[in-house]
## 1
Amino acid sequence: MSTPTATAQRAPAAGPGHLPSPAASGRPSRILVDLDALAANLRAIAAHVRVPVMPIVKANAYGHGLVPVARHLQASGAGSFGVAFVEEGIALREAGIDVPILVMGGIFGPQVAQFIRHDLQLTVSSLSKLRQVEDAAAALGRRARVHLKIDTGMERIGVHAGSAGAFIEAAVGSRWCDVVGVYSHLACADDPAAPMTMQQLERFLEACTHFERLDAPMPVRHLANSGGVLHFPATHLDMVRPGILLYGVLPDPASRPVVAVRPALSLVSQVVYFKVVREGSTVGYGASWTAAQDTRVVTVPVGYGDGWPRALSSRGEVLVRGRRHRLAGRVCMDQFMVDIGMHSAWNEDEVVLVGGQGAEAITVEEVAHTAGTIPYEILVQLNERIPREYRGGAHDAG
C-alpha cells in the first residue's frame, strides 16, 4: 500500500473545518451553548403542556452552565426554577435570579436556615423534616415556603402516598410553613409503554384528596418530568418540571419526539498533533489498539478529566473535516487519539465531539449509546475545565 505522508505541523490560514485560534489564554476545547435554542425549547414545551413550566437547572444546568442558562430562561419567561441542592439555589440568588426556586433534594437539618434566608422553597419529605423546618423558621422569625414530597413508587424520598394523611394535615396546620406545592417523581415515564406511570398518578391524586378533606387550599401539584411531558398528558396537572428535554435531548431511546426541541449544546475541540502510525504499531495506554495498516492519527485535547467518557475508547467517533472518524486507543485523562485513515487534517482543524459539522452530526444520545450509559450522564459529566461560550440572546459572540 502507499505510505501516508505527514501533514505539516503548522496550520494553514484557512481551510475546511478550520477554526480561528482561541485567545492565547484559552483552551482549544470549548462547549458552545445556543441560548436561543433553550428559549425556543421552553416555548415549545409550554405550548405543548399549556400549564406553567419549571425549568430544571440542577447539575450546572445539565452541563450547560447554571447562571447563564437561568438568566436567559428567566428573561425568556421562566417563572420558577428547580435545583437539587441549596448551594445551587444560593448561586442563583446571588446571580440576581428573583423568581421562585425549589430545591428538590432531601434537606439536611443544619442547612435549613440557609434556605429561609435566601428565600428558597424547600422540599419537605417527612414529619421530622417538617419539624426541622418549623424550628429553623421560628428561630429566624420568618415563614418557610415548602413543597410536600409524596412517594408514589420511586422509594427515594417522600412520605408514602398511602400514609400521607397525617403528614399533609401537620403541614397544612403548621404555624411557620406555607405549603405552596405538593409533588412526586415519575420512575418510568421515559418509556411511553410503562404502566407504572399511571399507577403513580393515581396514588398521587389520591394523596392530594387530603387537602380537600381538610378544607385546605390545593397547592400547586406537579408530577411530570421530561418523560411525563412527552408521553403522559394526564400527569401535567398544575405545572411540569422538564429537565433534559429542555436542553433538546430525549431522555431515553424509547422516548417519542412529540415536542419539537433542538439540542442547545455542542462540544468542539481542535487537532493539536498529527502523525503517521505504521502498520502493527500500538496507540495509547495498555497498547489496546493496533494499526491494521499504515494510517494517520491525530490527537485531540479532551479526556476523562474533562468528563469525556473513557468508555468511548476505540469505539466513539468524532467529526473532522465533515467526516466521521473513530477513536484509536484509550481515552486519556486530558487527550484522545483519532484514526483518520488516509484522510488529511491540519493542526487547529475543528473536531466535533457533540454537534454538527457539514452534513454530519453527532448527538448526545448517540454518544451515550456508544458509551453504554444515558444522555444525562454525558451532559452532567462535562465539567468546568472546559470553557463555555454562549451564543444568542445578550451573549451572542458572533
Note: The longest helix spans residues 196-213.
## 2
Amino acid sequence: MLSSKRLRVTALTVSALLLAAGCGSGDSGESASELKLYNDKGAWKPFFEQMATVGKQQTGLGMKPVGYTDEPSYTAFIKTSFRTKVKPDLFTWSTGGRLEEIVKQNQVAETTQIWQDAVKSGDLTDELKKYYTVGGKQYCVPLNTGYWGMFYNKKIFAKYDLKPPTTWAELEKTAQTLKSKGQIPFHHTTPTSLFSFAWFEQLLAGTDPDLYERLSTGQASYTDPGVVKAMERWKSMIDSGWFSKPGDKADPADHFKSGKAAMVVNGTWFNTSMTQRGLKQGTDYGFFFIPNVDPALPKRSLIFESGPLCSLRKAPDTEASAKYLKWWITPAAQEKWANARGDVSGNPKVKVADPELDKVTKEAASQQNRLLLRYFEAAPAPVLTEALSGFDKFLNEPGSYMDVLKTIQKANEDYWKNNKAGS
C-alpha cells in the first residue's frame, strides 16, 4: 500500500496537472495579448490584479494571476510544465538552491541584459544581483524583497507595559513576562513545514553567522556543536511554553488579530496579511529587528530574502514575457506594487508611503546590519526538502533534534558529494 505521504504527493501532482490543463497557457506560437502569472501567493490576488490594470495601461499587455495557496501543489505544477506544452508565461519562484536547480535544467529564461540595464539606470542594485546569478548569468527579476524580524501586538505589549527588546536577554524576559500572564509569547510562524526554518535560521545566525553561511555552501556539518547548540536553545524555548501549538492550523495574522499570540517572526511582506485583516502598523502592531543571541557579534544578523518573478526559456511568447519583466522592475510598477501591499521594494528609487515601513526600510539599510540570505533560498534544494521535513518533526517532537540534524546532514553530505563545496 502507498504511504500517506506518497498518496498526498500523488494527489497534489494530479491536482496540478488538472489545473494546468484547465487554465495553463498553450504554446500556440501566436503573440500574447494577456499573460498568465502563476504564483504561490494566492492571497495576493487583489494586488496582482491592481498590477494587471497598471501593466495593461503602460505595456499594452494584459495579465491574469493564477494563484496557489498550497506550496507542494504549486511546485508540482511548475515542474510538470517543463515536460509538457502547457507552460506559464510568468511564474514566481525562490532564489538560491531552488532557482539554481531549474536553471541547471535549462528551463529558465536568461535576464542578464535586463539586469545590466536596470543596474545602470539605478532601478536594481549589484548587491541584489548576486542572488539572481547562476553561472555568471542572471535569471528572473525581483518580485519582492523582504527583511525578517518580529511583528508584535502593540495592545498586548501596552497592557503589560512592555517595549520592543534591544537585546536577546530583554527578548527572553519579555517572553517570560507574557507567559507568566497566561499569554502565548510567540506564534510558531506557520501551521505547515513551509516556514518551519524561521527560528532555526534566526537562532543560528544570531549566534554564529559565519557557521550559518558555511552550512549553505557545504563547508559545515549540521551536527556541528554550534548548530546543535542553536537547536537546544530552540528546544528550551519550546519547553518553556513560549510557542503556540505546532498543530494549530490558524494563520499567524489571525493569531495577531485575536490576540492569541503576542509575537511572530516573519518577513516584512507579512504586512500585507495584516492590512488585509484591517490591522494598522503603528497602531495595532509594530515591528522590530531581532537582536543577536550573542551580544558580542560586531553586527546584527539580519535575514534577507528576495523572491523572483521568472519566465521560461520556452515560454508561449518569450518577447511578451521579457517585456513584462522589464516593466515590472521600473519605478512606476514598483511604486504601485510595494505601496499597494504595504511592503518594501527591490527598486531603490521607490518611495515607501507608510512612514512606519519607511523607518524599517531605512533601519535595514544601516551599516550596523549583516545581511544573511534566508535559509529557504540559501540551502541547496535537496537539503532544504529534508530540513523542512525535519524541522516540522522537531516542532512536534522537540526531543528528536539530534536525529533530525543527523538526517539533514546525510542529505547535506549526499548533495555535496556531487557539487563543489564553497560555491
Note: The CA atoms of residues 16 and 77 lie 5 Å apart.
